[in-house]
UniProtKB/TrEMBL annotation:
Pathway: Lipid metabolism; fatty acid biosynthesis. It comes from Psychroflexus lacisalsi. SUPFAM superfamilies: NAD(P)-binding Rossmann-fold domains. This is Enoyl-[acyl-carrier-protein] reductase [NADH]. Keywords: Fatty acid biosynthesis, Fatty acid metabolism, Lipid biosynthesis, Lipid metabolism, NAD, Oxidoreductase.
Amino acid sequence: MSYNLLKGKRGIIFGALDENSIAWKTAERAHEEGAEFVLTNAPVALRMGTINTLAEKTNSEVIPADATKVEDLENLIEKSQEILGGKLDFVLHSIGMSINVRKGKHYTDQNYDWTHKGLDVSAMSFHKLMQTLYKKDAMNEWGSIVALTYMAAQRVFPDYNDMADNKAYLESVARSFGYFFGKDKKVRVNTISQSPTPTSAGQGVKGFTGFMNYAEKMSPLGNATALECADYTLTLFSDLTKKVTLQNLFHDGGFSNMGVSQEIMEAMEE
Ligand SMILES: NC(=O)c1ccc[n+]([C@@H]2O[C@H](COP(=O)([O-])OP(=O)(O)OC[C@H]3O[C@@H](n4cnc5c(N)ncnc54)[C@H](O)[C@@H]3O)[C@@H](O)[C@H]2O)c1
């Protein structure tokens, strides 16, 4: 169902790799809600992925940008404003990558070059993105910036590895930069802490299926899907949430406030 929630709004969506990506679903839903936007991803991901299908479907252009490179971000933000015909109302940072996770390197045996790279891609890129938007004064007043995160920033999930630290940094940047964006530009900045979701990044985490099934059984409403995450993100881009900022918002079917559920108790008694 469409509510025209984003009619007349312009934005940039990072991170649509394939149709499972949370950013992909967000782009589809944002289009249905009347938004116009530019899609972006790292050049290597554009070669591997199928983003052009999404671009056609949503009537949008694709601009490559490695989110760790400030010059790429500058180019992206300038071109996007030219294409869309003005300043931006929303930006989605839906980016995550850990080489330690990908290569099965244990948390107690990090390759620190990989740790640095993962931090840059998954977390510092959010600062770089916001600093570039801020310096270029590219956001409209009452605009909204959202990044996606996971609860391993607050609690221990052993196989989430160095991504836990990256997410803690990301959430902190949202608050710290969100202060200046709020005071100086009336722009809100939030993170959405999403349930485990079967995407390319999600499935890269060791033991992902067990992890997902456990969360499903623990959450009174069950895990939130990528499409449901897209819907929630749109509310934060809309004018209905203008005073929500500096928040880490759990979108997880209630998982984050659970101690134990009946299903898990029963499974442990077997
Ligand atoms: N899938 C989950 O279980 C889950 C749960 C909570 C939060 N998240 C977060 O959601 C976000 C989106 O991930 P997803 O699950 O949709 O997986 P995904 O693999 O579809 O998306 C990750 C994206 O990051 C992009 N990326 C990697 N390096 C980049 C770079 N240098 N520059 C620009 N883009 C780059 C990839 O190309 C890809 O499009 C991530 O921040 C992820 O950590 C995912």
